[in-house]
Amino acid sequence: MARGRPRTFDRDTALAQATRLFWERGYEATSVGELTAAMKIRPGSLYAAFGDKKSLFKEVVETYGRSPEGAFIGKALDEEPTARAAFTRILHEAAETYADPSHPAGCLTISAATNVTPEDAEIAAYLRDLRNTNLARFKTRLETAQQQGELPPETDPEALARYFAAVLQGMSQQSRDGATKTDLQKIATQALTSVFPPPEPAPN
User: Fold this and answer.
1) Domain count, the chain
2) What is the DSSP code (8-state) at residue 121?
3) pTM here?
4) The pLDDT of residue 204 is above 80
5) Coiled-coil ranges per the record (predicted)?
6) Can you say whether the dihedral through the CA atoms of 22, 25, 29, 32 is positive or negative?
7) What CATH number should be reported for the domain holding residue 134?
């Protein structure tokens, strides 16, 4: 015999509302009361379906990471044949995604880390680990590019990986400050040109 009352809300819809709120406000500034109001559920239902606020947030981030808005970096690294093509795609898709008016501006995993207090160091570490995973993937891809002659021997893959990560973080914040897709595309183009100069024209 089933125990407890059946769920009276759509879990995916509630999760989408929580995602939007965390994305807009960040982890620390989002209260359980605001979450339950946005998700249109009672606190007891939140805890029964998702666990506590930290568990809900981690599920939000994991779901976001599988969405088009969160998965584009990994897809570009997996699918593009060269580092130039991969990072060109990453930065220009970031410009499209971060400024898309259909959802909150910027990147959820970047903006949600703002103002996390020492009491929530676990969440800060969780988000930092996700960002560092991308950083490690950037470094690996750039090391491969260097080994294959796409980048000069004097290139520092770790420093370059951190540069691209910093550009993405800056683009995310710029979008939250009102930068348009065109503004962000210009940043992307400038950053890429500084690393991958345009190929020289073929001789006649």
Assistant:
1) 2
2) H
3) 0.89
4) no
5) none
6) negative
7) 1.10.357.10
- Coil, helix or strand for 116? coil
SS3 98: helix
In a domain, 6, yes or no: no
Same domain, 101 and 148: yes
- Residues making up the chain, counted from first to last: 204
- Chain segment 23-74, per-residue pLDDT in tens: 999 999 999 999 999 999 999 999 999 999 999 999 999 999 999 999 999 9
Residues 43 and 129 in one domain: no
User: Could you tell me if 55 and 127 lie in one domain?
Assistant: no
Residue 4: inside a domain, yes or no? no
What's 123-174 look like in SS3? HHHHHHHHHHHHHHHHHHHHHHHHHCCCCCCCCCHHHHHHHHHHHHHHHHHH
3-state secondary structure 36-96: HHHHCCCHHHHHHHHCCHHHHHHHHHHHHHHCHHHHHHHHHHHHCCCHHHHHHHHHHHHHH
Range of the domain at 41: 11-63
How far is the C-alpha of 148 from the C-alpha of 153, rounded, in Å? 10
**Is 3 within the bounds of a domain?**
no
Q: Are 158 and 136 in contact (CB under 8 A)?
A: no
